[in-house]
Design a protein that fits this description.
By secondary structure, this protein is an alpha+beta fold. It has two domains: about 90 residues, Conserved hypothetical protein from pyrococcus furiosus pfu- 392566-001, ParB domain; about 80 residues, no CATH class. It is about 40% helix and about 10% strand. It contains nine helices and six strands. A hairpin with an 8-residue loop joins β1 and β2. α2 crosses α6 and α7 packs across α9. The N and C termini lie far apart (about 50 Å).
Length: about 230
């Protein structure tokens, strides 16, 4: 019988089952202890009326019209692919407020929900870090180009604008060697200014970009780069 090659899934399982070893002070023999695994805080899934969901009073995210239109267009095209996260301990929505708002606006009878069981303190951590953690990701432009080429023909509208924005590099590469410093100027409305200032404040409080790593002593510039990283511009 031919031997079965170890699959990636098996290797991943073996990696997760690694053990930590330590030598006790007395006896000199090796003992083994299993590392404590990550806790699964997901307790269930379901579909509920969006009107029955309780908005989180500490939700700090705002959703401008451009984002609302783009998300609605994406859901119109594809449908729901991610459940709204609800904490059974407090009853609060932890992630997905905009999806809930759009569902109520369109009189959708049901919306998908993922239930988690978190303490109020853990809920606060998730609420404060879920989006900023996503914003820390970089991007592989070549892979993104291939991905966007697979989306097919999208008619003009919010979704086409979003895909077009994702395809744009937008900023020139920094020079090789010592990081260069540039100044940029934007024109915004009063409402947009409030949104930008709020986002920069949150980014700063999240520890956005250490000047020792970015080479930029300007806290606003570091915070802006942190926010824009979510769109792959950095």
């Amino acid at each position: 019988m031919p031997k079965l090659a170890a699959s990636g899934a098996i290797q991943t399982h073996r990696e997760s089952a690694k053990i930590a070893r330590y030598r006790p002070h007395v006896g000199g023999s090796w003992l083994t202890l299993k590392k404590e695994g990550w806790r699964n805080r997901i307790t269930g899934h379901g579909e509920v009326s969006p009107e029955s969901l309780l908005a989180n009073p500490l939700n700090w995210r705002t959703h401008p019209k451009q984002q609302r239109d783009a998300l609605e267009a994406a859901i119109d095209r594809v449908g729901f692919v991610q459940g709204v996260i609800v904490n059974t301990t407090t009853g609060h929505v932890v992630d997905g407020h905009l999806r809930v708002d759009l569902a109520m606006q369109r009189d959708e009878p049901l919306i998908a929900v993922d239930y988690v069981a978190l303490s109020p303190e853990d809920e606060a951590i998730v609420l404060a870090t879920l989006d900023p953690l996503s914003a820390l990701a970089g991007r592989d432009q070549a892979v993104l180009d291939d991905l966007l080429a697979m989306t097919g023909d999208i008619e003009d509208g919010p979704l086409a604008q979003l895909l077009g924005f994702a395809a744009e590099v937008g900023f020139p590469e920094m020079p090789t060697g010592e990081r260069g410093i540039r100044q940029m100027t934007f024109t915004v409305t009063e409402d947009q200014q409030a949104i930008i200032e709020g986002a920069l404040s949150v980014a700063k409080s999240a520890g956005a970009h250490d000047p020792s790593e970015t080479g930029n002593e300007n806290s606003n510039g570091n915070a802006l780069a942190f926010v824009c990283a979510g769109y792959g511009a950095a």
